[in-house]
């Protein structure tokens, strides 16, 4: 399945009962684009006693991720076919994520709130200071660095070098996903994310888009509650809810698509 081009293999582990110790190797094998199915990540759907289901999320390099916004949207649709529940509480490593089926293909989820936030995070690269936002969503949080940067007019080799430099920067204790964005209107951005664990640009990133919306709001660069993000894989929407001028809820909304069902 994919959510705006961010693609995942989904496994119903409630019936498959694959052991957790085997998840990383299976992730690497199945996500391999040459020798496997090919995907940015893999999700093992498990049963949980405190929530409706549990998401075990692994990146294509076999590393476990705390959370994945587009992955949860896909999992919610996948689970709908198994459990027939239009609303779910999904346990992720970053915390509980609530999901809602809007229609056959569109899913809305409540992202975890930030646990670590630095809206004035400066990094020097080749003698230039770049100031962006470092945010971890959830606890333990998924790490994101958001930077307003003219990525569309940057040489692709240079962009890779810059993204890799930021992704491994010592300021980020667990590394970071790097979200470049460009404001194109009051509530619109173009966005490109370099992902930890995929070690490449992906076609979109859900939690990254949530962090971009939060950083824009905190830096007073948007004043409405909606952000539309144009990514190489499609459009994602973030809706913010406020309580006494603070962000209370961060919703991620977007399309999902089933590519194929199969046996491996
Ligand atoms: N693309 C995902 C995030 C994957 C996280 C992963 N790259 C990691 O840092 O472990 C999303 O839609 O939120």
TrEMBL record:
Subcellular location: Cytoplasm
Pfam families membership: DAP_epimerase
Catalytic activity as recorded in UniProt: (2S,6S)-2,6-diaminopimelate = meso-2,6-diaminopimelate
EC number: 5.1.1.7
Binding residue positions for substrate: 6, 59, 69-70, 177, 195-196, 206-207
Keywords of the record: Amino-acid biosynthesis, Cytoplasm, Isomerase, Lysine biosynthesis
Pathway of action: Amino-acid biosynthesis; L-lysine biosynthesis via DAP pathway; DL-2,6-diaminopimelate from LL-2,6-diaminopimelate: step 1/1
Active site: 68, 68 (proton donor), 205 (proton acceptor)
Family: Belongs to the diaminopimelate epimerase family.
Subunit organization: Homodimer.
Protein name: Diaminopimelate epimerase
Organism: Anaerosphaera aminiphila DSM 21120
